[in-house]
Write a structure and sequence with these properties.
heterodimer, A: alpha/beta, Rossmann fold, 2 domains, seven-stranded mixed sheet, 14 strands, globular, B: Rossmann fold, three-stranded antiparallel sheet, binds thiamine diphosphate, binds magnesium ion, PDH_E1_Alpha_Subunit (chain B), thiamine pyrophosphate (chain B), oxidoreductase (chain B)
């Protein structure tokens, strides 16, 4: 077989893998990015320090407090859920409103759809995005199409499905997947992924109140790693609106969830090492996505790098790239780059190699500017 | 209850116990009463009287101990961060895998979920194959590519991370066996939590419709993660949940009850189609290593089971008492018309006379325990330094016979690789 050429970055990763194995007892494994907190918008009122799971709890708390039809259910959510996102809510709002469901993803989502079409606000938790597929049929064939097929007599817009997603450093095949692209193919659904606590709370409240069924994927590595001053009250952030986190002139970097933070480091490295100015965009909403922000940036810089953890083939980056090339063809200075997961299952020990890390992204930036 | 059927004064010359037993007399075979079964849509259940030989008894004991020791070792490796990720231990449930494996053959199929370490060992994966899979080494039974939830060997189909998905697969394996005219069965195992997944009911129906040689086994350890069986299931009599499929409830802390029910079931399903076993058991650890396992149950509850219902402890005291007694021992107390049962009962009043055999047998057990400790420790040391597969194996095992010039696509031209 042809071997991958040993780039420096691959060598570095190989080394870190070895370190993990042989210094395993003492090495403290850190996340593969450094987290830069967002600053809260003063108009959203007073704040307190929260990590991402606490900001989710806060959003759910606000929702349950204001909307008497709202209920939360899923596997183990009554005890707080495996990632502690619903801690305390059963005690505060009672067993009738925050309850455990049996182990049945299809049942969880389907019951949620049923509740939503009959007028309840249904907030369902799927324990890991990897386990959403038993419910895929319900999401794709029921939730997404209900409004359309009934000529708008019924809809399940009051349904929100939350699920932790993306890599966590050691999750292997079934605790690491990024599944957003599967749902990107389902008109009628909204798909949202926050990059940190402030965003998570505002976007989740928007999803819950949005009149369309929403899937909210929470990057699980950020639950504890991301800490911000989060507004304690009720606020919403707009769906289908991307954030421009850094303004730049040479290259547009586009990501969502955890990858936004990797790309932020790439932007800094590109500035330092290559004197290249990067514009960083967090797409925030995968479906329907914010074309205006993305296309304006692509037209400005003429060079685009899209990066996600999901496999490259048919990842959501493919849709962005196709749209950018057709809308900004004459502005482009180089072929659009995608730095993504490989077309393999999410690997066990090889996770550090699979990840679209900052080194691979930086190489792509070099290719963009040297084209 | 124990009945001595045959005792022997033969001084065993079995060298594998290294002569420790010299001077001791053992029963070579004993009959035990199992804990009672509960039946669903069955007139007659499995025999509750089980006869086992001394070798069998020691083998079951050893198998359960290896699993227990292996899991304790895995827990320690996890705590020292040599094993990472998700790791689900089988401690407490050993009698299920051990009792079942000894009732089937290696040509029968088994499929289970992610709590698979004990089953992997019983199906033939060596301890190193389990531990190295956990550390991600190439000596792992899936070459380190699967990790904790994914272990496999011949006729052992794993090792499944998606709760419930393995059950219809197991029914499919049984269908293949039937279609191929084999006289084999497939055991499809799942938990009390998994029992509520819709696809199980689809599998029950198809298995019954086509009379497949499938033994569905619900390992009811009381909890699915933090949710107790009563909170998740409208009907917690899992052995009745196959509706028209007959079922048996087993006290699965009793390895002999498990074995008896499985032997019965194998014969049953080959003639009559599927059966559903509920193996009532308990897990000592949390759901996985990241769950301390104390927020949804009391420490006392766990302690109570460890003390009074531990499958290894129970079995150990049974075999010790069965081996205690020899005809010689009993002779002075069994004059004339006294039957053996009675004379056996007398034994409980005796201490002095029996002490010697008891002590000898304990030595045998201790020797087994020491050997196991050493075996598992050696495997753990190897697993710790077992190298990973080379990097190109990130890209292998995705397709067989890929199209010409097929490459696994990354996003970076330097890592476009062709596959083996
Ligand atoms: C489809 C799916 N949903 C959820 C999970 C997460 N999960 C893993 S194990 C488990 C509990 C299973 O409990 P049970 O079937 O009783 O098996 P036990 O862990 O007790 O052996 C859950 C919810 C999963 N792996 N797959
Ligand atoms: Mg269970």
């Amino acid at each position: 077989m042809a071997l991958p050429s040993k780039t420096l970055s691959a060598a570095c990763r190989q080394f870190s893998l070895l370190c993990r194995r042989f210094v395993g007892t003492t090495a403290v494994r850190s996340v593969h990015f450094s987290y830069v907190p967002d600053t809260p918008d003063p108009k959203h009122g007073s704040t307190t320090r929260m990590n991402l799971f606490q900001s989710i709890t806060s959003a759910l708390d606000v929702c349950l407090g204001k909307d008497p039809t709202a209920v939360i259910f899923g596997e183990d959510v009554a005890f707080g859920g495996v990632f502690r996102c619903t801690v305390g809510l059963r005690d505060k709002y009672g067993e009738a409103r925050v309850f455990n469901s049996p182990l049945s993803e299809q049942g969880i989502v389907a019951f949620g759809i049923g509740m939503a079409i009959a007028g309840s606000t249904a907030i369902a938790e799927i324990q890991f995005a990897d386990y959403i597929f038993p419910a895929f049929d319900q999401l794709r064939n029921e939730a997404a199409m209900f409004r359309y097929r009934t000529g708008n007599q019924f809809d399940c817009g009051r349904l929100t499905v939350r699920a932790p997603c993306m890599a966590v450093g050691h999750g292997a095949l079934y605790h690491s997947q990024s599944v957003e692209a599967f749902f990107g193919h389902c008109p009628g659904l909204k798909v949202v992924i926050p990059r940190g606590p402030i965003q998570a709370k505002g976007l989740l409240l928007s999803c819950i109140r949005d009149e369309n069924p929403c899937i909210f994927f929470e990057p699980k590595i950020l639950y504890r790693a991301a800490i911000e001053e989060v507004p304690t009250g009720d606020y919403e952030l707009p769906l289908s609106k991307a954030s421009v986190l850094l303004e730049g002139s040479d290259v547009t970097l586009i990501g969502w969830g955890t990858q936004v933070h990797v790309l932020r480091e790439v932007a800094a490295m590109a500035q330092d090492k290559l004197n290249v100015s990067c514009e960083l965009i967090d797409l925030c909403t995968i479906l329907p996505w914010d074309k205006d922000t993305v296309l304006a940036s692509a037209a400005k810089t003429g060079r685009v790098l899209i990066s996600h953890e999901a496999p490259v083939t048919m990842g959501f980056g493919a849709e962005l790239a196709a749209t950018i090339q057709s809308e900004c063809f004459l502005n482009l200075e180089a072929p659009i780059e995608r730095v993504c997961g490989y077309d393999t299952p999410f690997p066990h020990v090889f996770e550090p190699f699979y990840m679209p890390d900052k080194w691979r992204c930086l190489e792509a930036v070099k290719r963009l500017v040297n084209f | 209850m124990l009945t001595l059927v045959r005792s022997s004064t033969a001084r065993s010359s079995r060298s594998w116990i290294l002569g420790i037993q010299q001077g001791c007399n053992y029963a070579t075979e004993a009959t035990f009463e199992t804990k009672p079964f509960k039946l669903h849509r069955l007139e007659n259940g499995p025999p509750t009287t089980v006869k086992i030989t001394r070798e069998e008894a020691l083998q079951y004991y050893k198998d359960m101990q290896v699993i227990r020791r292996m899991e304790t070792t895995a827990a320690n490796l996890y705590k020292s961060k040599i094993i990472r990720g998700f790791c689900h231990l089988y401690s407490g449930q050993e009698a299920v895998a051990v009792g079942m494996e000894h009732a089937i053959t290696k040509e029968d199929g088994v499929i289970t979920a992610y709590r698979a370490h004990g089953w992997s060992y019983m199906r033939g994966v060596p301890v190193l194959g389990v531990l190295a899979e956990l550390t991600g080494g190439r000596s792992g039974c899936a070459k380190g590519k699967g990790g904790s939830m994914h272990m496999y060997c011949k006729n052992f189909y794993g090792g499944n991370g998606i709760v419930g998905a393995q059950v219809p697969l197991g029914a499919g394996v049984a269908l293949a066996m039937k279609y191929q005219g084999k006289k084999n069965v497939c055991l499809a195992l799942y938990g009390d939590g998994a029992a509520n997944q819709g696809q199980l009911f689809e599998a029950y129906n198809m298995a019954k419709l086509w009379d497949l040689p499938c033994i569905f086994v619900c390992e009811n350890n009381g909890y699915g993660m933090g949710t107790s069986a009563a909170r998740s299931s409208a009907n917690t009599d899992y052995y009745t949940r196959g509706d028209s499929i007959p079922g048996i409830w087993i006290d699965a802390m009793d390895v002999l009850a498990v074995k008896s029910a499985t032997e019965f079931s194998k014969q049953f399903v080959l003639k009559n189609g599927p059966i559903l076993l509920e193996a009532a058991t308990y897990r000592y650890h949390g759901h996985s290593m990241s769950d301390p396992g104390t927020s949804y149950r009391t420490r006392e509850e766990v302690q109570e089971v460890r003390q009074n219902r531990d499958p290894i402890g129970l079995f150990k005291s049974r075999i010790i008492s069965s081996a205690l007694v020899t005809e010689d021992d009993l002779k002075p107390y069994a004059p004339g018309g006294m039957n053996r049962k009675k004379s056996f009962d007398h034994k409980w009043q005796l201490t002095a006379k029996n002490k010697k055999a008891d002590a000898c047998f304990l030595l045998v057990i201790q020797k087994i325990d020491n050997d196991i400790r050493q075996e598992v420790e050696e495997a753990a040391e190897k697993a710790k330094v077992d190298p990973e597969l080379p990097l190109e194996d990130l890209y292998s095992d995705i397709y067989s016979q890929p199209p010409p010039n097929f490459v696994v696509r990354g996003s970076d031209p330097t890592v476009m690789v062709s596959v083996r």
